[in-house]
Amino acid sequence: MREVRVRAPGKVNVQLSVGPTGQDGFHPLATVFQAVNLYETVTATLRDDDQISLTVSAIPALEHAVDAVPLDESNLAWRAAQTVRDQYGLTAGVDLHIHKGVPVAGGMAGGSADAAAALVACARLWDSGATRSELHEMAATLGSDVPFSLQGHTAVGIGRGTELSPAMTRGEYFWVFALQEDGLSTPAVFGEFDRLAAQGAAEVASPQLDPAIMQALSLGDAVALGKALTNDLQEAALSLQPRIQYALDAMHEAGALGAIVSGSGPTVAGLARSRQHALSIGAHLDRVNAAAVTIAAAGPVTGAVILDE
Ligand code: C5P
Predict the structure, then answer these.
(1) Which of 160, 144, 187 is nearest to 11 (CA)?
(2) Which residues have C-beta within 8 Å of that of residue 97, sequence separation ≥ 6?
(3) Whose CA is nearest to atom 8 of ligand 1?
(4) Gap between the Cα atoms of 41 and 102, Å rounded
């Protein structure tokens, strides 16, 4: 039976600067992504008909969230398979199995990683001959974070976040992620951002990269990175899910170098001095009941890779 297995990473935005809504309805971004070693693994198995099917499992820490993953055309992995078929005029079918290691609806690009992995898996399974740049273009049509999951490492994203350039970075960064009971929808968080901006006195400025972030990364200075972490969506995520504040506070109590909402949330990312420190911050959060689940991880890591075929 022909089968291709691909894994793709989740991410944290160490900076997320958001501008006012553009004519296309999207917000222009200036963001710095770091891929972390929490992975989605997609196994694509050839079918002898033209159907696409989808099943999902998860690492133990995420098993509670498997039921929240749609198993139809609304799943980004499904749409990735369909995109490859449309692009190359193919009619082949595929069974897709997703094994989740990235929080669901958590602001860590789990769905985008599914799309990135499914694109690579289907392109290979069906011998499409897709080039890297063709994969990137298809990825950008599927979602703002999909090209980054394909590419991985550390990158600056502008526009919708799909125009990527690699960032200079040194060393390894240790994170602890605080998951919340309920997810947040990305459009809802951007909508809340707009609502809060409309209430505020100041106008939303154009998105800007912070030199302090770029310098900290290029020096491998985790202390400076921790101080410089910023996310313009944090206030909107907090407004929709005020409980997030407990996780931010508990991260600081436990001595995190910095703490921030990841992407559109609600996951809170804490930067630690070491893997051991990340585990001890996680233990503190568990003790004070500041998160549904905590997971330690590290970055940066590579983007989508074929594991076997
Ligand atoms: O691209 P993605 O599917 O992740 O975007 C989901 C939604 O989030 C968009 O439809 C849009 O409402 C909002 N969004 C935005 N500006 C961005 C990225 C996403 O307003 N740069």
Answers:
(1) 144
(2) 42, 43, 45, 54, 55, 56, 57
(3) 187
(4) 10
Round to whole Å and give the CA distance between 26 and 190: 9
Structure tokens at 14: 């160490």
| Catalytic residue check, 227 | no
Q: In Å, how far are 51, 163, 164, 288, 306 from 135, measured between CA atoms?
A: 22, 14, 14, 44, 14
CA-to-CA dists, residue 268 to 195, 203, 221, 244, angstroms = 22, 27, 21, 7
Q: How far is the CA of 144 from the centre of ligand 1 (A)?
A: 7
- Give which of 234, 119, 103, 253 is closest to 179, Cα–Cα: 103
Q: What is the pLDDT of residues 92-146, one digit of tens each?
A: 999 999 999 999 989 999 999 999 999 999 999 999 999 999 999 999 999 999 9
- State the Cα–Cα distance between residues 87 and 130, nearest whole angstrom: 9
pLDDT value of position 40: 98
265: left (phi over 0), alpha (psi -120 to 50) or beta: left
Cα–ligand 1 centroid distance for 81 (angstroms): 21
Q: Tell me phi and psi for residue 150, to 5 degrees.
A: -65, -40
Give pTM, 2 decimals: 0.96
> Is 95 assigned a catalytic role?
no
Amino acid at 158: I
CA distance 159 to 225: 23
